[in-house]
What we know:
The chain is mostly helical. The chain folds into 2 domains: 13-134, Arc Repressor Mutant, subunit A (Orthogonal Bundle); 163-248, no CATH class. The protein is 65% helix and 2% strand. It contains 12 helices and 2 strands. The protein has helices at residues 13-19, 31-58, 61-66, 73-80, 84-96, 113-116, 128-131, 133-140, 142-151, 163-196, 201-226, 234-248; strands at 101-103, 108-110. Strands 1-2 form a two-stranded antiparallel sheet. A hairpin with a 4-residue loop joins β1 and β2 (108-110). It is extended, with a radius of gyration of 24 Å.
Amino acid sequence: MPSHTALPWRPDRSYVDKVTAIDQLPESESPEAKEFGHRMLGVVNDAAIALLLSIGHQTGLFDRMASLASATSTEIASAAGLDERYVREWLGGMVCAAIIDYDSTTHTYHLPAHHASALTRAGGPDNVAKMAQYIALLGEVEQRIVGCFRNGGGLPYDAFPRFHALRAEESREVVDAALITTILPLIALLVAMHAGLAFGCWPVLALGVPAGALTVRTFIIQHDCGHRSFCRARRANDYLGRFCSLLTLTP
């Protein structure tokens, strides 16, 4: 069985002092204060993990590891075409986050199959690592947002240089899913409702419930197209948005 006790690296004393400081609160501190302190420390740790997830997605490390059996950091780096030292450090973070298993006997790493479905491109819309890129994106503009707090104003879309690239990556999966799960079923329901008029109002009313829910989802797609954030190409956003407006009867 993989061991989580022997890690591929050990933090130095100063690091341990920082992350365990929350356990050294004075006895006068209330249990609520300690609990909240632990929660805030967890938020900081999870934010760092989100950045590591983003790196794992962009470098293709999760995808490579999903196709490998247990492997050393050198083997994983070679398979991904990356620098071994950086891959090893990233793996250390993933082991500490209990995302990747580490076998201290063979010094090998393994991505469990039940984790891979939420971390690889094969997971499609369920790929959480892809979404973690937005945390890194917000970090790129943090100082400009701080400036807005102090001076007012706002940030335009072009202040987020990777936003459209990230949306385009999503749209390749989302557009297909939207067509299959939203737009095509809505069209089929509208046709069925029209045909159901021959049998009275009750079949139409019954079909109207799911049709209403799909109309709302279609309007959300239309809204994103209006902001040109659903598809990468501007013209694709325009055409898809106009088609959705025919279904939602909303300009």
